[in-house]
Amino acid sequence: MTESEKLKYIKKLKDMIISCSGIGDCRIGYRPAVGCFGVCPVYEHSPGFEPYQARGKLRVLYGLLEGTLEPSEELARVWYQCTSCGGCHAICHQSFNENINLFVCNYINQNEVWEAFRADLVDAGLAIPRHQELIQSIIDEHNPYFESHADRVKWLEGREFPEKAETVYFMGCTEPYRLPEYAQKMVKILDTAGIDYTIMHPNEWCCGSIAFRTGFLELAKELAEHNITAIQETGAKNVVIHCAGCYKTFVEDYPKILGNELPFKVYHATEFFLDLVNQGKLNFNKAIEKKVTYHDPCHLGRATKIYDAPRELLKKIPGIELVEMKRIRENAWCCGAGGGVKSAFPDLAVEIAKDRILEAESISIKTIVTACPFCVNNLRDGAKALGKEDFEIKDILDFITEALE
Predict the structure, then answer these.
(1) Is residue 133 included in any domain, yes or no?
(2) N or C end of the chain: which has fewer CB within 10 A?
(3) How far is CA 388 from CA 23, 293, 384, 393, in A?
(4) Which tens digit of pLDDT belongs to each residue from 112-167?
(5) Are 73 and 179 within one domain?
(6) pTM for this one?
(7) In this structure, are 181 and 269 located in the same domain?
(8) H/E run at residue 213
(9) 287-339, pLDDT tens digit by residue?
(10) Rounded distance between C-alpha atoms, residue 8 and residue 188, angstroms
(11) Beta strands 392-395 and 367-370: pairing type?
(12) By C-alpha distance, which of 267, 289, 292, 383 is closest to 335?
Protein backbone atom coordinates (compact mmCIF):
# COMPACT_ATOMS: atom_id res chain seq x y z
CA MET A 1 0.00 0.00 0.00
CA THR A 2 1.46 3.37 -1.02
CA GLU A 3 1.46 6.39 1.29
CA SER A 4 -1.26 8.04 -0.80
CA GLU A 5 -3.50 4.98 -0.33
CA LYS A 6 -3.20 4.96 3.46
CA LEU A 7 -6.16 6.39 5.40
CA LYS A 8 -7.87 7.19 2.09
CA TYR A 9 -11.34 7.05 3.60
CA ILE A 10 -10.82 9.39 6.54
CA LYS A 11 -8.80 11.79 4.38
CA LYS A 12 -12.03 12.46 2.48
CA LEU A 13 -13.71 13.47 5.76
CA LYS A 14 -10.94 15.66 7.16
CA ASP A 15 -13.19 18.73 7.38
CA MET A 16 -15.58 16.84 9.62
CA ILE A 17 -12.81 15.44 11.78
CA ILE A 18 -11.12 18.77 12.49
CA SER A 19 -14.36 20.65 13.15
CA CYS A 20 -15.03 19.09 16.57
CA SER A 21 -15.26 21.93 19.12
CA GLY A 22 -14.48 19.61 22.03
CA ILE A 23 -17.54 20.52 24.12
CA GLY A 24 -17.91 16.93 25.26
CA ASP A 25 -21.68 16.42 25.17
CA CYS A 26 -20.85 13.15 23.43
CA ARG A 27 -19.58 11.95 26.81
CA ILE A 28 -22.14 13.37 29.24
CA GLY A 29 -25.20 15.09 27.83
CA TYR A 30 -27.86 17.32 29.30
CA ARG A 31 -31.42 17.89 28.18
CA PRO A 32 -34.03 19.61 30.36
CA ALA A 33 -36.49 16.75 29.87
CA VAL A 34 -34.16 14.09 31.21
CA GLY A 35 -31.37 15.96 33.00
CA CYS A 36 -27.78 14.67 32.79
CA PHE A 37 -27.31 11.32 31.09
CA GLY A 38 -24.66 9.15 29.52
CA VAL A 39 -24.53 9.39 25.75
CA CYS A 40 -22.14 6.65 24.67
CA PRO A 41 -23.02 3.17 25.97
CA VAL A 42 -19.53 1.87 25.24
CA TYR A 43 -17.87 4.72 27.12
CA GLU A 44 -20.07 3.98 30.14
CA HIS A 45 -18.64 0.45 30.21
CA SER A 46 -15.06 1.36 29.28
CA PRO A 47 -12.00 2.21 31.38
CA GLY A 48 -12.98 5.86 30.84
CA PHE A 49 -10.30 6.79 28.33
CA GLU A 50 -11.12 9.44 25.69
CA PRO A 51 -10.86 7.21 22.58
CA TYR A 52 -13.87 5.23 23.81
CA GLN A 53 -16.16 8.19 23.07
CA ALA A 54 -16.65 10.55 20.14
CA ARG A 55 -14.54 13.53 21.14
CA GLY A 56 -11.55 11.31 21.83
CA LYS A 57 -12.07 9.35 18.62
CA LEU A 58 -11.97 12.54 16.57
CA ARG A 59 -8.77 13.61 18.35
CA VAL A 60 -7.20 10.24 17.51
CA LEU A 61 -8.17 10.61 13.86
CA TYR A 62 -6.67 14.08 13.77
CA GLY A 63 -3.42 12.60 15.07
CA LEU A 64 -3.51 9.93 12.38
CA LEU A 65 -4.05 12.51 9.67
CA GLU A 66 -1.21 14.64 11.05
CA GLY A 67 1.11 11.64 11.19
CA THR A 68 1.66 11.72 14.95
CA LEU A 69 -0.20 8.41 15.39
CA GLU A 70 -0.24 5.16 13.43
CA PRO A 71 -2.98 2.53 13.06
CA SER A 72 -2.42 -0.50 15.29
CA GLU A 73 -4.14 -3.63 16.55
CA GLU A 74 -4.70 -1.93 19.92
CA LEU A 75 -6.35 1.06 18.27
CA ALA A 76 -8.48 -1.22 16.08
CA ARG A 77 -9.71 -3.09 19.15
CA VAL A 78 -10.84 0.18 20.74
CA TRP A 79 -12.35 1.42 17.49
CA TYR A 80 -14.48 -1.63 16.91
CA GLN A 81 -15.99 -1.28 20.37
CA CYS A 82 -18.64 1.06 19.01
CA THR A 83 -22.24 0.04 18.38
CA SER A 84 -22.84 2.68 15.68
CA CYS A 85 -25.79 3.78 17.79
CA GLY A 86 -25.56 7.43 16.74
CA GLY A 87 -26.02 8.81 20.25
CA CYS A 88 -23.03 11.08 19.82
CA HIS A 89 -24.41 12.41 16.55
CA ALA A 90 -27.84 13.09 18.04
CA ILE A 91 -26.45 15.35 20.75
CA CYS A 92 -23.52 16.96 18.93
CA HIS A 93 -23.72 20.75 18.66
CA GLN A 94 -22.07 20.51 15.26
CA SER A 95 -24.56 18.13 13.75
CA PHE A 96 -27.66 19.09 11.83
CA ASN A 97 -30.15 20.90 14.09
CA GLU A 98 -33.55 19.66 12.93
CA ASN A 99 -35.47 22.07 15.16
CA ILE A 100 -34.19 25.12 13.28
CA ASN A 101 -33.33 23.37 9.98
CA LEU A 102 -29.73 24.53 10.18
CA PHE A 103 -26.24 23.12 10.12
CA VAL A 104 -24.41 24.40 13.18
CA CYS A 105 -20.77 25.14 12.24
CA ASN A 106 -19.29 22.28 10.23
CA TYR A 107 -21.46 19.22 9.94
CA ILE A 108 -20.08 16.11 11.63
CA ASN A 109 -21.60 12.75 10.78
CA GLN A 110 -19.92 10.66 13.45
CA ASN A 111 -21.01 7.24 12.21
CA GLU A 112 -19.82 8.06 8.71
CA VAL A 113 -16.42 8.97 10.17
CA TRP A 114 -16.21 5.88 12.41
CA GLU A 115 -17.07 3.55 9.55
CA ALA A 116 -14.66 5.32 7.20
CA PHE A 117 -11.79 4.59 9.58
CA ARG A 118 -12.93 0.98 9.88
CA ALA A 119 -12.60 0.77 6.10
CA ASP A 120 -9.06 2.11 6.44
CA LEU A 121 -8.36 -0.49 9.14
CA VAL A 122 -9.59 -3.23 6.80
CA ASP A 123 -7.27 -1.93 4.07
CA ALA A 124 -4.41 -1.98 6.58
CA GLY A 125 -5.15 -5.60 7.51
CA LEU A 126 -6.33 -4.65 11.00
CA ALA A 127 -9.93 -5.82 10.94
CA ILE A 128 -11.17 -7.79 13.94
CA PRO A 129 -10.66 -11.54 13.26
CA ARG A 130 -14.23 -12.41 14.25
CA HIS A 131 -15.57 -9.92 11.73
CA GLN A 132 -13.38 -11.44 9.06
CA GLU A 133 -14.98 -14.80 9.79
CA LEU A 134 -18.47 -13.33 9.41
CA ILE A 135 -17.49 -11.68 6.15
CA GLN A 136 -16.18 -14.98 4.82
CA SER A 137 -19.50 -16.61 5.70
CA ILE A 138 -21.31 -13.87 3.74
CA ILE A 139 -19.05 -14.50 0.76
CA ASP A 140 -19.54 -18.27 0.94
CA GLU A 141 -23.23 -18.55 1.90
CA HIS A 142 -24.66 -15.01 1.64
CA ASN A 143 -25.30 -14.80 5.39
CA PRO A 144 -23.12 -14.06 8.46
CA TYR A 145 -24.37 -17.00 10.52
CA PHE A 146 -22.33 -19.82 8.94
CA GLU A 147 -25.57 -21.40 7.70
CA SER A 148 -26.42 -22.86 4.31
CA HIS A 149 -27.89 -20.36 1.88
CA ALA A 150 -30.61 -22.91 1.08
CA ASP A 151 -31.76 -22.82 4.70
CA ARG A 152 -32.78 -19.16 4.45
CA VAL A 153 -36.28 -20.41 3.59
CA LYS A 154 -36.30 -23.56 5.76
CA TRP A 155 -38.95 -21.96 8.00
CA LEU A 156 -41.36 -21.72 5.05
CA GLU A 157 -41.77 -25.51 5.04
CA GLY A 158 -42.05 -25.76 1.27
CA ARG A 159 -44.40 -22.86 0.60
CA GLU A 160 -43.81 -21.31 -2.81
CA PHE A 161 -44.10 -17.68 -3.91
CA PRO A 162 -44.67 -16.07 -7.31
CA GLU A 163 -41.75 -14.72 -9.34
CA LYS A 164 -43.47 -11.34 -9.77
CA ALA A 165 -45.40 -9.24 -7.25
CA GLU A 166 -46.22 -5.68 -6.26
CA THR A 167 -44.29 -6.01 -2.99
CA VAL A 168 -41.18 -7.86 -1.84
CA TYR A 169 -40.69 -8.97 1.75
CA PHE A 170 -36.94 -8.74 2.34
CA MET A 171 -36.22 -11.24 5.11
CA GLY A 172 -32.66 -10.37 6.06
CA CYS A 173 -30.49 -12.93 7.83
CA THR A 174 -31.26 -12.71 11.55
CA GLU A 175 -34.93 -13.64 11.25
CA PRO A 176 -34.78 -16.69 8.96
CA TYR A 177 -31.65 -18.10 10.61
CA ARG A 178 -32.03 -17.12 14.28
CA LEU A 179 -35.60 -15.92 14.89
CA PRO A 180 -37.71 -17.70 12.26
CA GLU A 181 -40.88 -17.10 14.26
CA TYR A 182 -40.70 -13.44 13.22
CA ALA A 183 -40.34 -14.28 9.55
CA GLN A 184 -43.41 -16.49 9.96
CA LYS A 185 -45.30 -13.65 11.64
CA MET A 186 -44.39 -11.24 8.84
CA VAL A 187 -45.85 -13.68 6.34
CA LYS A 188 -48.97 -14.17 8.46
CA ILE A 189 -49.62 -10.43 8.67
CA LEU A 190 -49.06 -9.88 4.96
CA ASP A 191 -51.35 -12.83 4.14
CA THR A 192 -54.05 -11.51 6.48
CA ALA A 193 -53.97 -8.10 4.78
CA GLY A 194 -54.23 -9.66 1.32
CA ILE A 195 -50.99 -8.10 0.07
CA ASP A 196 -49.64 -9.11 -3.35
CA TYR A 197 -46.11 -9.99 -2.30
CA THR A 198 -43.24 -12.35 -2.82
CA ILE A 199 -39.81 -13.18 -1.44
CA MET A 200 -36.59 -13.30 -3.45
CA HIS A 201 -35.09 -16.65 -2.52
CA PRO A 202 -32.74 -17.95 -3.81
CA ASN A 203 -31.76 -14.46 -4.98
CA GLU A 204 -31.88 -12.70 -1.62
CA TRP A 205 -28.41 -12.18 -0.17
CA CYS A 206 -27.30 -10.56 3.09
CA CYS A 207 -28.15 -6.85 2.93
CA GLY A 208 -24.54 -5.99 3.76
CA SER A 209 -25.15 -4.19 7.03
CA ILE A 210 -22.29 -6.03 8.72
CA ALA A 211 -19.97 -5.27 5.80
CA PHE A 212 -20.88 -1.57 5.92
CA ARG A 213 -20.52 -1.33 9.70
CA THR A 214 -17.19 -3.16 9.89
CA GLY A 215 -15.45 -1.54 6.92
CA PHE A 216 -15.66 -4.15 4.15
CA LEU A 217 -16.97 -1.70 1.58
CA GLU A 218 -16.16 -3.60 -1.62
CA LEU A 219 -18.28 -6.53 -0.48
CA ALA A 220 -20.98 -4.15 0.75
CA LYS A 221 -21.25 -2.61 -2.71
CA GLU A 222 -21.43 -6.05 -4.35
CA LEU A 223 -24.28 -7.08 -2.02
CA ALA A 224 -26.15 -3.83 -2.64
CA GLU A 225 -25.93 -4.17 -6.41
CA HIS A 226 -27.04 -7.79 -6.29
CA ASN A 227 -30.06 -7.22 -4.05
CA ILE A 228 -31.29 -4.21 -6.00
CA THR A 229 -31.10 -6.16 -9.26
CA ALA A 230 -32.87 -9.15 -7.70
CA ILE A 231 -35.70 -6.94 -6.44
CA GLN A 232 -36.08 -5.25 -9.82
CA GLU A 233 -36.42 -8.67 -11.44
CA THR A 234 -39.57 -9.28 -9.37
CA GLY A 235 -41.16 -6.13 -10.78
CA ALA A 236 -41.89 -4.94 -7.23
CA LYS A 237 -42.62 -1.31 -6.51
CA ASN A 238 -42.42 -1.75 -2.74
CA VAL A 239 -40.01 -3.50 -0.38
CA VAL A 240 -41.05 -4.26 3.21
CA ILE A 241 -38.33 -4.90 5.78
CA HIS A 242 -38.70 -5.75 9.46
CA CYS A 243 -35.02 -5.90 10.51
CA ALA A 244 -33.98 -2.38 11.52
CA GLY A 245 -30.39 -3.01 10.42
CA CYS A 246 -31.49 -4.12 6.95
CA TYR A 247 -33.86 -1.17 6.70
CA LYS A 248 -31.15 1.35 7.51
CA THR A 249 -28.81 -0.32 5.04
CA PHE A 250 -31.33 -0.06 2.23
CA VAL A 251 -32.48 3.52 2.80
CA GLU A 252 -29.21 5.08 3.98
CA ASP A 253 -26.26 3.03 2.74
CA TYR A 254 -27.42 1.73 -0.64
CA PRO A 255 -28.10 5.15 -2.23
CA LYS A 256 -24.84 6.50 -0.83
CA ILE A 257 -22.55 3.73 -2.05
CA LEU A 258 -24.28 3.36 -5.42
CA GLY A 259 -24.69 7.08 -6.05
CA ASN A 260 -28.35 7.03 -6.99
CA GLU A 261 -31.83 6.71 -5.51
CA LEU A 262 -33.43 3.29 -5.20
CA PRO A 263 -35.83 2.30 -8.01
CA PHE A 264 -38.51 1.20 -5.52
CA LYS A 265 -40.05 2.38 -2.25
CA VAL A 266 -38.69 0.85 0.95
CA TYR A 267 -40.93 0.58 4.02
CA HIS A 268 -40.16 -0.53 7.52
CA ALA A 269 -42.74 -3.08 8.63
CA THR A 270 -44.17 -0.74 11.28
CA GLU A 271 -44.84 1.97 8.67
CA PHE A 272 -46.33 -0.52 6.23
CA PHE A 273 -48.58 -2.18 8.80
CA LEU A 274 -49.74 1.12 10.29
CA ASP A 275 -50.90 2.15 6.81
CA LEU A 276 -52.79 -1.15 6.48
CA VAL A 277 -54.49 -0.62 9.84
CA ASN A 278 -55.50 2.91 8.87
CA GLN A 279 -56.87 1.59 5.57
CA GLY A 280 -58.93 -1.05 7.37
CA LYS A 281 -56.97 -3.94 5.85
CA LEU A 282 -55.74 -5.10 9.27
CA ASN A 283 -58.15 -5.22 12.19
CA PHE A 284 -57.17 -5.86 15.78
CA ASN A 285 -59.91 -8.09 17.16
CA LYS A 286 -58.34 -9.24 20.39
CA ALA A 287 -57.48 -7.14 23.43
CA ILE A 288 -54.06 -7.65 25.04
CA GLU A 289 -54.12 -6.41 28.60
CA LYS A 290 -50.51 -5.49 29.18
CA LYS A 291 -48.42 -2.54 30.29
CA VAL A 292 -45.32 -2.18 28.10
CA THR A 293 -42.52 0.20 27.23
CA TYR A 294 -41.03 0.70 23.78
CA HIS A 295 -37.32 0.51 23.01
CA ASP A 296 -36.22 2.56 19.99
CA PRO A 297 -33.78 0.54 17.86
CA CYS A 298 -30.86 2.81 16.93
CA HIS A 299 -30.97 1.90 13.23
CA LEU A 300 -34.69 2.60 13.10
CA GLY A 301 -34.85 5.64 15.36
CA ARG A 302 -31.80 7.87 15.27
CA ALA A 303 -30.64 6.60 11.87
CA THR A 304 -33.91 6.76 9.92
CA LYS A 305 -36.17 8.83 12.22
CA ILE A 306 -38.94 6.24 12.58
CA TYR A 307 -40.20 6.93 16.08
CA ASP A 308 -43.96 7.33 15.70
CA ALA A 309 -45.15 4.38 13.60
CA PRO A 310 -44.33 1.63 16.13
CA ARG A 311 -45.81 3.67 18.99
CA GLU A 312 -48.98 4.39 17.04
CA LEU A 313 -49.34 0.71 16.20
CA LEU A 314 -49.03 -0.27 19.85
CA LYS A 315 -51.62 2.32 20.86
CA LYS A 316 -54.09 0.92 18.31
CA ILE A 317 -53.96 -2.55 19.89
CA PRO A 318 -56.79 -2.83 22.44
CA GLY A 319 -55.58 -3.23 26.01
CA ILE A 320 -51.97 -2.17 25.47
CA GLU A 321 -50.79 0.59 27.79
CA LEU A 322 -47.59 2.24 26.59
CA VAL A 323 -45.37 3.75 29.30
CA GLU A 324 -42.24 5.55 28.13
CA MET A 325 -38.80 5.16 29.63
CA LYS A 326 -36.74 8.20 30.56
CA ARG A 327 -34.46 7.95 27.53
CA ILE A 328 -36.47 7.64 24.32
CA ARG A 329 -36.46 8.65 20.67
CA GLU A 330 -33.24 10.53 19.79
CA ASN A 331 -31.94 10.10 23.36
CA ALA A 332 -32.76 6.38 23.60
CA TRP A 333 -30.15 4.03 25.07
CA CYS A 334 -28.68 1.49 22.67
CA CYS A 335 -29.38 -2.22 23.21
CA GLY A 336 -25.66 -2.90 22.74
CA ALA A 337 -25.75 -5.26 19.75
CA GLY A 338 -24.98 -3.07 16.74
CA GLY A 339 -21.85 -2.13 14.85
CA GLY A 340 -20.32 -5.59 15.11
CA VAL A 341 -20.09 -5.40 18.90
CA LYS A 342 -22.35 -8.38 19.56
CA SER A 343 -20.17 -10.68 17.46
CA ALA A 344 -16.74 -9.42 18.51
CA PHE A 345 -17.40 -8.23 22.07
CA PRO A 346 -20.45 -10.19 23.30
CA ASP A 347 -19.86 -9.48 27.00
CA LEU A 348 -19.84 -5.73 26.34
CA ALA A 349 -23.06 -6.03 24.33
CA VAL A 350 -24.79 -7.79 27.23
CA GLU A 351 -23.57 -5.23 29.78
CA ILE A 352 -25.15 -2.46 27.72
CA ALA A 353 -28.38 -4.46 27.37
CA LYS A 354 -28.57 -4.75 31.17
CA ASP A 355 -28.75 -0.95 31.40
CA ARG A 356 -31.90 -0.92 29.30
CA ILE A 357 -33.56 -3.69 31.30
CA LEU A 358 -32.91 -1.84 34.55
CA GLU A 359 -34.20 1.40 33.04
CA ALA A 360 -37.49 -0.29 32.20
CA GLU A 361 -37.68 -1.78 35.69
CA SER A 362 -37.16 1.68 37.19
CA ILE A 363 -40.60 2.67 35.84
CA SER A 364 -42.16 -0.61 37.05
CA ILE A 365 -42.34 -2.20 33.61
CA LYS A 366 -41.66 -5.89 32.97
CA THR A 367 -42.16 -5.94 29.19
CA ILE A 368 -40.01 -4.19 26.60
CA VAL A 369 -41.33 -4.07 23.04
CA THR A 370 -39.07 -3.24 20.14
CA ALA A 371 -38.99 -3.53 16.36
CA CYS A 372 -35.63 -5.12 15.60
CA PRO A 373 -34.52 -8.77 15.85
CA PHE A 374 -31.02 -7.72 16.94
CA CYS A 375 -32.47 -5.75 19.84
CA VAL A 376 -34.77 -8.63 20.77
CA ASN A 377 -31.88 -11.09 20.94
CA ASN A 378 -29.51 -8.90 22.90
CA LEU A 379 -32.06 -7.52 25.34
CA ARG A 380 -33.12 -11.10 26.07
CA ASP A 381 -29.48 -11.91 26.78
CA GLY A 382 -29.34 -8.90 29.10
CA ALA A 383 -32.42 -9.96 31.02
CA LYS A 384 -31.05 -13.49 31.32
CA ALA A 385 -27.70 -12.21 32.59
CA LEU A 386 -29.54 -10.24 35.27
CA GLY A 387 -31.53 -13.30 36.29
CA LYS A 388 -34.80 -11.57 35.35
CA GLU A 389 -36.80 -14.65 34.41
CA ASP A 390 -40.10 -12.77 34.64
CA PHE A 391 -38.95 -10.00 32.29
CA GLU A 392 -40.31 -10.12 28.71
CA ILE A 393 -38.66 -8.90 25.53
CA LYS A 394 -41.19 -8.80 22.72
CA ASP A 395 -41.19 -7.64 19.15
CA ILE A 396 -44.12 -5.57 17.96
CA LEU A 397 -44.91 -8.44 15.55
CA ASP A 398 -45.80 -10.58 18.59
CA PHE A 399 -48.59 -8.22 19.58
CA ILE A 400 -49.81 -7.54 16.05
CA THR A 401 -50.29 -11.23 15.28
CA GLU A 402 -51.89 -11.94 18.65
CA ALA A 403 -54.32 -9.02 18.25
CA LEU A 404 -55.32 -10.25 14.77
CA GLU A 405 -56.58 -13.59 16.14
Answers:
(1) no
(2) C
(3) 38, 16, 6, 11
(4) 999 999 999 999 999 999 999 999 999 999 999 999 999 999 999 889 999 999 99
(5) no
(6) 0.93
(7) yes
(8) helix 209-214
(9) 999 999 999 999 999 999 999 999 999 999 999 999 999 999 998 999 999 99
(10) 47
(11) parallel
(12) 383
